[in-house]
Amino acid sequence: MKYVFYSIVLILVFANSTGYSQGENAETGYTFRSGDPNGIGKWYMGREIAYVMGYQGINWLERPEREKEEQTSLLLENMDIKPDDRIADIGAGSGYHVFKMAPMAKNGIVYAVDIQDGMLTALRARKKKEQAINVEVIKGSEQSIKLAENSVDKVLMVDVYHEFSYPREMMASVVKALRDKGKLFLIEYRGEDRTVPIKKVHKMTVKQAVKELEAAGMKLEKNINNLPWQHCMIFIKK
């Protein structure tokens, strides 16, 4: 799912006639310079942040062939969802994963977090249609998932982390919301594999993911390599 974390104001502030400034903000670690045409010109720990896929791409999220291409049911098996689990789907989009997880966590809750009003409208409509009483729709922000401290057992991010405009701040809010024994399931298209038919800036390597999430206070527990195109990286708190 694609989470809108692109701020045109930010780009205009740092742009000039010769391109983006290459200076680094020592406090945040962000730099600004020209790069991939599919990137926003903002870099974090050596990785350019990608443009987001907006609400207009909702049909792609719900495409019939998605199960075959990504084996999303296998991803949910990897999560080992329990009936009492409290789960946050960050960048939930149209709710493709949300409404599959909700019956699995029937005694718990699934937080569907997004920032795009179009996606939030779609989520609320589907919640009403399916009478999914254990789904709560949350409007996040560019820098926070807007969930309470120690409120979730599992966090799911499917093809969204690489688009966060503020990955440092977002991960701080995720770590805060995750319980001590909680797990983050980071799903990203494999940056090491050129055969994966996704633009380079929309992929991530395990090495880069570990670098960034370790800086956020997490460590890689394991990477389950059973999905066709994506890494299924499981992170826990250090």
UniProtKB/TrEMBL annotation:
Keywords: Methyltransferase, Transferase. Residues 89-186 form the Methyltransferase type domain. CDD domains: AdoMet_MTases (cd02440). SUPFAM superfamilies: S-adenosyl-L-methionine-dependent methyltransferases (SSF53335). One of its GO terms (molecular function) is S-adenosylmethionine-dependent methyltransferase activity. One of its GO terms (biological process) is methylation. It comes from the Bacteria. Gene3D superfamilies: Vaccinia Virus protein VP39. Pfam families: Methyltransf_11. InterPro entries: Methyltransf_11, SAM-dependent_MTases_sf. This is Class I SAM-dependent methyltransferase.
